[in-house]
Amino acid sequence: MRPISQQDILLALRETCAVQFFKEKQDTFVNIQCPVCDVDGNFIYFKYGFSHDKCQKCCTVWCNPRPTEASLVEYYATSESAKMWTSILVSTDTSRKQLQYQPRVDSLIATLKQDLSFIADKAVDLGAGSGAFALCLQNKDYFSEVIAIDFDEDCVNVCKQLQLKAMVGSVDQIEEGSANLITMNDMIEHLFDPKDFLERCYSSLANNGYISIACPNGEGFDFKLMGENTVNIVPPEHLNYFNPDSLSMLLVKAGFQIVAVETPGILDVEIVKREFKAGNLSLDNNMFLKTLMSHNDDAIRRQFQSFLQVTKQSSHMVVIAKKNL
Ligand SMILES: [Zn+2]
């Protein structure tokens, strides 16, 4: 049997804290329409007690009704689950995370260099966590200034130890019209009001500035196969599950032009194989996938993962957009 890992403990703690929070706060929850289309959705499932809707127009999935912004702040500040997540985040080997982020940063900078109107002055990484992404940006020596911003003080202190310019807060810390690049990783799915947030990002960017958003793809392969059992469906921490089309629509509504949409995720097939082998996912109704996941040859599954990437069906996506007045 596989030994119990820190990840297993975190997953169990997340559920316990979420169920407890739901019981205590459900009477204060507020109803939310589709964060992209402002229309009502259809109920699809519960997770840890929290109800989730799906939009028939754009396929975004969102937690509804959901906790107020104030109670979410309280949850992040007090829940054992959030504390454990932050302690894992800040203790994770930054150089290993940099290796994961480096290809993304290289690809982003290659995109920016193709735009002769782009000025590589100030880059801001929001929800910077342990600072690995901001450090990758800084080490490229392309931007004059790289700033890491996170609402968690422990994360900001870790960023400062890495010699990053770092501050506590969110997009409000950026002076209007001053940033040339805003990046965020695994952050937008946490936000109470993502549209308002993107409008603030738009205001904070200089003309010809860019935004790069990496987040889960709610229409990705493992989401589709596992539904609410996907480890990424984790209320009240995650509230919004966009897809390549719906996040693009939201960015356009906030004023942006879409530059690139990709799903470079590499883990979908591994996650599904792991859940299938552990007996948590039945593929009896899908002989194609059952054969694929049972096959002895890993190379076939790697090819299938490449197919998911190319066809924008991986569960991890990146959207790059531009402010062009
Ligand atoms: Zn919608």
Describe what this molecule looks like in 3D:
With 325 residues, the chain is of the alpha/beta class. The chain has one domain: Vaccinia Virus protein VP39 (Rossmann fold). It has helices at 6-25, 69-78, 80-91, 94-113, 132-139, 153-161, 194-204, 221-226, 244-253, 268-277, 287-294, 298-310; strands spanning 42-47, 50-54, 61-63, 122-126, 145-150, 165-168, 179-185, 205-216, 240-241, 257-262, 316-322. Strand 2 (50-54) and strand 3 form a beta hairpin. Helix 2 packs across helix 3 and helix 4 (94-113) crosses helix 5. The chain is globular. The structure holds zinc ion. Zinc ion (ZN) is lined by residues 34, 36-37, 55, 57-58, 60.
Q: Give a list of the ligands.
A: zinc ion
Q: Under the CATH scheme, which class?
A: Alpha Beta
Measured by DSSP, the beta-strand proportion falls in 15-25%
- The fourth-level CATH homologous superfamily is Vaccinia Virus protein VP39
In short:
It contains twelve helices and eleven strands. The chain has 325 residues and is α/β, with parallel strands linked by helices.
Question: What attributes does this structure have?
Answer:
Rossmann fold; binds zinc ion; 325 residues; 12 helices; alpha/beta; four-stranded antiparallel sheet; 11 strands
Topology:
Elements lengths: L5 H20 L16 E6 L2 E5 L6 E3 L5 H10 L1 H12 L2 H20 L8 E5 L5 H8 L5 E6 L2 H9 L3 E4 L10 E7 L8 H11 E12 L4 H6 L13 E2 L2 H10 L3 E6 L5 H10 L9 H8 L3 H13 L5 E7 L3
Parallel strand pairs: 4-5, 4-7, 5-6, 7-8
Antiparallel strand pairs: 1-2, 2-3, 3-9, 8-11, 10-11
Helix pairs in contact: 1-3, 2-3, 4-5
Bound molecules: zinc ion (ZN).
Zinc ion binds next to loops.
